[in-house]
Each structure stands twice: as C-alpha cells, then as structure tokens.
Amino acid sequence: MVNTEAVKTYLLDLQARIIAALEQLDGKAFLTDSWQRAEGGGGITRLVEEGNVFERGGVNFSHVKGSTLPPSAAANRPDVAGQPWEAMGVSLVLHPRNPYVPTVHMNVRFFSTCDTQGNPVWWFGGGMDLTPYYGFEEDAVHFHRTCRDALTPFGEDLYPRFKKWCDNYFYLKHRQEARGIGGVFFDDFNEGSFEHSFAMMRSVGDSFIPAYVPIAERRQAIAYGERERDFQAYRRGRYVEFNLVFDRGTHFGLQSGGRTESILMSMPPVVKWRYQWHPEDGTPEARLWTDFLPHREWV
C-alpha cells in the first residue's frame, strides 16, 4: 500500500538532518524560505550564499501537485502522459568556494499519478553525483563505495546498474564529456513492493552525509589561488550547460510552472566560458580530463 505521508515525513527529516550537518561544516546558518504553489502544494528552500565553505548551496524540499503531468516526467511512461500527478522530493546542489572541494548534487523523489485507465502508478527516483575540479582518487573511491554500500542490501545488481545509468545521464553529449565522476542515478523505480522501493530510496538519501561531508572536511583547508579559482569557474560552465540543456528535474520544474528561484538554485554564483580552451598537458587541470572524467570503475 502506498503511504505518501510516510514519504513526506522522511523527506522533511532528511532535509533537516542534511542542513544540520552542512551548517556544522560551514559555520553559517542556511536561510529558510517557505513557499506555496498556486496549482497545489509548496515547499521549503534552505539556502546559503557566501558561506565559509559553500559559496552557494541549496537544499530544497518540495511537495507539489498538478492536473497534467509535464512531458519530462512522462518521457519513459507514455501511459501516464497528461494525467493528474503528485510529486515530492529533496534536492540539493552545493558549490564550494575552495576549488579542491568538489561540487555535489543529490536528490531523492517520489511520483504518484495514474494511467489513462485510472490505475494508480507510482515510482521513486534519485541519486547523487560528484563533480570535482581537481581530482583525488581517494575521494572518488570513498564516494562510490558509500553509494555501493547503500544499495547492496537491496540487490547486488543495483550499484553497477545505477552507476552506469548515472554515467550515461550526467554526460554532455554536445561535448562528449562527463560532467564529473558520477555516482548513482535511478528513475521510474517501483520494483517489488512500495515498502521495498521506499527503503531503497531512504538508504540512498541517508548515505549522502557520509558520502560527501568527509571529502569536504579533507579538502576545505587546501591553499589555492587565482589559477585554481579561474579553472573552477570554467568547469562550472559545464554544470550550467548540463542543468539547462539536459537535466530532467530542471525541465520538469519549468514545464510544470514551478518556482523559478528554487529550480535554479543549482546554478553556481561565478561562471566562465572560453572559446576552444584546453589545459596544458601534464597540468593538474589536464589530469581531470585524462584520469577522472572518462568513465571508469572506482570500486
């Protein structure tokens, strides 16, 4: 039996736990912005700007409803296109100030709708991925191992399946380049019972703090200068390109008449683009392309 209230209770608690961990790491409080949506539902946006660790970061909870499911949400499910819908989730993007601390994205979400015959349809989605500017193998292994360990109790096949899905999804096709080093990604997940699928989603959400916070703690005090900040701004451009051109969550939010400020909280505060620029061979910047962005097995 589908229990939407249990999902909502979990998501609100997850948002609160993540904010508590991030405020302890950063030392600056996140602002709170509660909002309502005219068509139904609302959310709570928690945001920090000009923090000690995070130049910009947001952790958003939303619970929204609509009368017609947007095309982006029904891309893989034509049987539910145009139907009434309900969606809830927690999504976050953190853009650190120090270029040696990676940007990170995580979201977990739940959709409920019905097919054209009126039969209930539901699924979970989500995942997390890491976008370093300067790569550390230790960090990549830790992040992927934590993702793997969160999924293993629900099936040995889930981590390799969701890792490949993440590699393929967070990929800039127009550049033939990965956005970062990946992680795990899943969508339209309703395997087994509701309780089984919900437990799997909870395990992914709960693993975010141990996956990311130790990496940020290790790298936040590394000295950096204008060169590293300049490269960080250049690479952030890839993040913007992906989110605006390919990301289904961004498209869903905009197509469903969502709250623009909350949808675009994932945008980094400082970004640069250059024409036909490439790092010099042998530099730490070039190593990102040669050693980290190509898809590989980390654990």
TrEMBL record:
Residues 239-274 are annotated as: Important for dimerization. Its EC number is 1.3.3.3. Pathway: Porphyrin-containing compound metabolism; protoporphyrin-IX biosynthesis; protoporphyrinogen-IX from coproporphyrinogen-III (O2 route): step 1/1. One of its GO terms (cellular component) is cytoplasm. The active site is at residue 105. A divalent metal cation binds at residues 95, 105, 144, 174. It is found in: Cytoplasm. Substrate binds at residues 91, 107-109, 257-259. GO terms for molecular function: coproporphyrinogen oxidase activity; metal ion binding; protein homodimerization activity. The record marks 174 as: Important for dimerization. It comes from the Bacteria. One of its GO terms (biological process) is protoporphyrinogen IX biosynthetic process. Involved in the heme biosynthesis. Catalyzes the aerobic oxidative decarboxylation of propionate groups of rings A and B of coproporphyrinogen-III to yield the vinyl groups in protoporphyrinogen-IX. This is Oxygen-dependent coproporphyrinogen-III oxidase. The lineage of its organism: Bacteria, Pseudomonadati, Pseudomonadota, Betaproteobacteria, Burkholderiales.
